[in-house]
Amino acid sequence: MRRIAAIAAAKAAAALSQRLRVGGGTALPGLLAEWIDPNIVPEMARRLGEGSVIVTGTNGKTTTARLLRGIVRAAGLRVVANRAGSNLMRGIAAALAESAGLGGDFAGARRLLGVFEVDEATLPQAVRALRPRVVLFTNLFRDQLDRYGEVEHVAAVWRDAVFALGRSATVVLNADDPSVAALAQAAPGQVLVYGVEDTSRGIDRLEHAADARWCSSCGGELAYATVFYGHLGHWSCPQCRAARPPSRVVATRVEPEAEGTRVAIAMPGAEVSVGLPLMGLYNAYNVLAAVAAAVALGIDAEATERGLSSFTAAFGRQERLTVGGRRVQVILAKNPAGLNEVLRTITADGQQKDVALFLNDDIADGRDVSWIWDVDFDLLAGKVRSLTVSGNRAWDMALRLKYAGLDSLPQVEERAAAALRRALRATPEDATLYVIPTYTAMLRVRALLARWARRPAFWQEG
C-alpha cells in the first residue's frame, strides 16, 4: 500500500505542477514519493530488466545522458530517465514513478534500462540505491564551491562511491582528466577508458584557471604534451611516472563544421563517424563519453551510429530557436572551464557576435560568483557587436567585463524579459544571438524564449 500511495501521489503532483505551469513535475513528485516510501528508488530500480546507468561529472551530464538515451533506443531498448535534468535523488524517484504503473511495475520491464543523470555530490546515494551496471564520469571542474567545496573533496567523494560498487559494475572514465582517470584505482570491477587522440585542436600549455595541476598519487606537478581545454589533455607525472591511461574508445578525428562538429570514434572492432548539431571540443567529449558507455553496455557500432544521428540538442545546451526573425542559441555555462570553452567556440571564426550573458546566484547556481574573474572574457575583445548582461548579479558581471579590455561596456538590464528584448533588437535579422546563462537563469530565459518561439516546455522534450 505504501508503494501504491507513493506512486499515486507522485503522479498527481506531476500532473498538477504541469497543469498549473509551475514546473515540469520533476522534483516535487519525487520528494513526495520518497517521503511516503523511503525505499521507492532501490525497490523500483531492481525491477528494471536491463539495470541502470549513472552519468555524472561537472559539465556535460545532460547532453551525454541524452546522447546515450538515443543510442539505447536505437539498440531496441526502452528507457527510464530523469530527462529534464532533475539530478538529485528526488529526480530519479520522480522518473521511476512517472514510468511505472500504480503497483510499481513497468510495462515491458525486461527490455527497460534506466539512464540517470546524477549530481556530483549525490553519487554515493545514487550508487547505493540503483546498484548500477555502468557509472560514467565526464570530467571534474571547479563548480559551486560553496556547495561542493574544492575539487579534491569531490574527487574523494567519488572515490568512495566507486569503491562501494559491486564487481559486476563497469566504471567508464575520461583518460584526459587526471582526477577522473585516477578513479580506476578504486574500482573493484571492470574499467573502460575513453579519450581524444586527435591533437590538432590542442595547445601546449594549461589554462591559467586549470583545476588539476598536481598528481593525485604523489603531489608532483603534472606535465602536458597537449591540452584540449581546462586541464583535459595528454598528461603525465614526471615525478612518479603516472600517466594518462590508454583508451579503448578513442576520438580519432574532431572537425568543426558550420553549426556543429563531426567526430570519428574508434571503438573495439569498429569505428563510427557522426556529425552533430553541437559546437565545441567539449561536446566532442560528450559524444565520446556516450559511445564509451554504449560499449560498456554491449551495444554495437551500428546501433550507436544510428542513435547518434538522430540527436537534437537538449534544452539550454546549444539549443536553437527562432524569435522575431532572429536565430537564438542558448548555451548553459556555469563555471570557468565551461564558459571559457563556450567563448572560445563562438568566437573561433573571428566574426562579430551578439551576446547576452545572464548571471544568477541562486542555490542551484552557487552563491559565490567570484568564479567569473577566472573567465577569459578578453576572448570577446574586438568580436562583439552587441553585449547585454542580466540576472540578479548583472552588475557583478558588468564590473568583470569592464576589466576585460572590451571595446565598449555592456548594456545592463536586470529583468530577464527586458534584457532578451533589448538583445534581440540589437541583433541583425541575419545574425545569431548567443544567450549564455547560468543554470537558474537558463530555466527562466529558456521559458521566455520557448514561449515567444512557440516551443514546448523543456520537460515535454525527449
Describe the model.
The chain folds into two domains: 220 residues, 3-Layer(aba) Sandwich (UDP-N-acetylmuramoyl-L-alanine:D-glutamate ligase); 144 residues, Protein-Tyrosine Phosphatase, Chain A (Alpha-Beta Complex). It is of the alpha/beta class and 462 residues long. The mean pLDDT is 90. Strand 12 and strand 13 form a beta hairpin. The longest helix is centred in the N-terminal third of the chain and has 18 residues. It is globular and about 60 Å long. Helices cover 34% and strands 22% of the residues. The strands form three sheets. The protein has a nine-stranded mixed beta sheet, sandwiched between helices. The chain has a six-stranded mixed beta sheet with strand order 12-13-17-14-15-16, sandwiched between helices. The protein contains 15 helices and 17 strands.
Please give the structural blueprint.
Elements: H1 2-19, H2 28-36, H3 40-45, E1 52-56, H4 61-74, E2 78-81, H5 89-99, E3 112-117, H6 123-130, E4 134-137, H7 145-148, H8 151-163, E5 170-174, H9 178-181, E6 191-196, E7 223-229, E8 232-236, E9 249-257, E10 260-267, E11 270-276, H10 281-296, H11 301-309, E12 317-323, E13 326-331, H12 336-346, E14 353-358, E15 384-390, H13 394-402, E16 411-412, H14 416-426, E17 432-437, H15 439-453
Parallel strand pairs: 1-3, 1-4, 2-3, 4-5, 5-6, 6-9, 13-17, 14-15, 14-17, 15-16
Antiparallel strand pairs: 7-8, 9-10, 10-11, 12-13
